[in-house]
């Protein structure tokens, strides 16, 4: 569990997020657990005010995750550990849809023996794709492109 230094001593990332969101005037509970697909802690904010925290295309949520990570890093080197921040399971649902979509595309690659390029994705999403398709022995994945244009290409194994 991530434990940033805090004025009152060491606190968990969940407590730190609960405090940060509370200062924003949002009432919320924070759950922290591990998930099989993620090698980092999953921290989920449960609130009735999810729209405010998520924003359009999850921009507010991604910005909140970035800010919380920077604040934790400033409190000490042990706070530099990674975690996955979510609100009401929004991003987790998106990842499940992504995995289902890429598995469907892998079946097409297998059937037609042709490459398929996915839309540009974040490094985290690309990693999820590589992990999701690793179980297919006749399929391989490769990240191509640079910067914001980086994407995964699904290919039949030669």
TrEMBL record:
PANTHER family: PROTEIN JAG, RNA-BINDING PROTEIN KHPB
Organism: Candidatus Sungbacteria bacterium RIFCSPLOWO2_01_FULL_59_16
A GO MF label: RNA binding
Domain (R3H) ranges: 92-158
Name of the protein in question: R3H domain-containing protein
